[in-house]
C-alpha cells in the first residue's frame, strides 16, 4: 500500500502490507508498540510512567498470546499450511515474551541520584522485538487470509446439495439483495440530514442486518456450525411429532428399546410446545379448545399404550397381547396425526387471514401520507398499528415454522420472522425522518424502499404458505429444471439489436406480485396433473413443461433461477408460447374423440389458448429500446404468461373429467394404449407437415428436440 500506519511510526518495521484488512488489523498493535518506542530517548521514568509502560507491555504480550492461540488452532485444521503457520506463531509468541521482559518492572534499574528508574535502556533489543512481532503477526494474518480465500474458491463451484444449506444461502442472499437498495437510500438520507437521530438509527439497522447475513454466508462457505440455528430447528412441533411417532412405532421391533418414562416425557415435551398456539392472543377460543382436547386425547392414548406395552413385557408376546399392542400403537399415532393436522390448520388459516387483511397495506399508506405532511403525532399513531401488525406476522411465522415439516421450509419461516421483526422498526424510523423533513426527496424515497421491502416479504410469505401446504398434502413440489436460455436461429433474429437488461431491486419488487400469481398458477397446474391416471398422456407432458417454464419465470421476478436478464425472460416466453401451441395441437386431437357438445367446450377454450400463445409470442419478439420500454415489456410478458397459465389450469380438470367419463362408458378411450395410438394417427395437420418435409407441429413451431439441439450448439460454441 502507498501509505501504511506502520510506515508512520517512529521506527522502520521493514514490512510491506498489501491488503487493507491486514493493515486495519495491525493498527491497534502498532499503536501499542509505538507507545513503547516513543520513550526511547527518556531512559529515566517516574513510577507512574513505569507502571503504565509495564501495563502496555503486558497487554501486548497477552494480546499476542490470544492471537497465537487462534493461529495455532487454524494451523491444526489446515495441514498444508501447518508448518508455516506454526513457525509464524512461534516467532510471534517469542517476540511478545521479549517485549514483556523488556517492560518488566522487576528488570528496571534504580538511578543513584533520585527516585527515578531506568527501563529498557537497550533500545536495539526493543526495536528488534517489535520488528519480529509485526513481521510474524503479519505473516499469520496473510496465511489466515490464504486459507479463507482457498475455502471460498473451493466452495465457489460446489453445488450445495444439502437442502438446508441451500435454504440458508437463499435467505442470506435475499437479505443482501434487498438491503443493497435500503443501504443506498438510508446512507443518502443520513448524509442529507446528519443531525437526524432516526436517520442514523435507520442506516445502522441496515448495516447490522447485512453484517449478520454476511456472517451467515461465511458460516456456509467455511462449513462452520451454527449451534443457535440447530437449537431452533430441533424445537419445532413437526419434528417432535415425527420423532414421537417413530419412537412409538419402534415398539413393534423391540419392546425394551426404551422405558415408559422416556416415552411419556417425550410426549409432555411435545405438548408443552403447543403452548405457542394455545397461549397466543390471536388464537380463537374454539381452536384453542380443539388443540387442548387433542392433547388430552393423545395423553390418554399414550397412557393406554404404556399400560398395554408393560403388560406385554410382563406376560409375554402372545397373539392377543401383540394385537392389543398394535391397536394401541395405531390409536396413538392416529391421535398424534389429528393433533398435527389441527395445528397445521390453525397456523395456515391464521397466515391466510393475515395476508388477506394486510394485503391493502393501509398502515403503510397512512405512514407515508403522515410523514409527507410532517405530522409526527399521526406517524406515532400509525406506527403503533404497524407494530401490532408486525407482531402478528412475527408470531404467525413462528407458528408456521412449527408446522413446516422440512428443514428448508423451517429456515425460510425463520428468515421471514426475522425480516418482519427488523423491517417494521426500520419503516417507522424512516417515517419519523420524513416527518421531521417533509420536503426531503431522499427521505421520501427511503421510506418507499422500506415499504416495498415489506410488501415483497408479504408476497414471499404467500409463496411460503403454498409450499407448506404442498408438503403437508404430500406434494413436495420437486421440479425438473427447465433450462431454456437464449439460443441462435429463428428466435434471436428480431432481437439482435436488443440489449440484455437486468432489473434493479425496485423493478423486481414491483414484479413480485405478478410473479407470485404465476407461481400459484403453476402449482395449481401441477396439482391438477397429479389427479390424472394416465401419466404418459401428451396433455400431461406438455402441461408439465408449461408449469416448469412458468416457475422459472416466477424465479426471474425474484432475481433467482437460470434466467438472469430480460433477454433470457423473453426467450423463455417464446418457449412458453411454443409449448402452449403444442398443447393446443394435442387438445385439438383430443377433441376429435368427443361428442359435439363436449367438443365445442374444449375447442372454445382451445381457441382462447391459441390466441394467448400467439399474443405472447408476438410480444416477446417485438424489439424495444431503453430501460423503461424494456420494463414495460417485462410487465406485459409476465401478464400474458399469467393469462395463458390461467386457461391451462381451467382446461386440465375439464379434460380429465371427460377422459374418465369416456373410460367408464367403455368407449374407444377405455385403453390408454389405444388412445395414444389413435392420437398419433388422427392428426392430419402433423401428417401433412411430415409429408412436406417440415418438422413443425402444424402451427409453424419447431419441435422441442430442435430447440434442445440449438441449445447444445450454443453451449458448445
From TrEMBL:
A GO cellular component annotation in the UniProt record: cytoplasm
GO molecular function: actin filament binding; cadherin binding
Keyword annotations: Cytoplasm
Bias-annotated ranges (Basic and acidic residues): 674-689
Keyword NAD: no
Pfam families the UniProt entry points to: Vinculin (PF01044)
Subcellular compartments: Cytoplasm
Ranges for region Disordered: 665-702
GO biological process, alphabetically ordered: cell adhesion; Rho protein signal transduction
InterPro entries, sorted: Alpha-catenin/vinculin-like_sf, Alpha_catenin, CTNNAL1, Vinculin/catenin
Ranges annotated as spanning the membrane: none
Recorded family membership: Belongs to the vinculin/alpha-catenin family.
PANTHER family recorded: ALPHA-CATULIN (PTHR46342:SF1)
Name of the protein described by the UniProt record: Catenin (cadherin-associated protein), alpha-like 1
Organism lineage: Eukaryota, Metazoa, Chordata, Craniata, Vertebrata
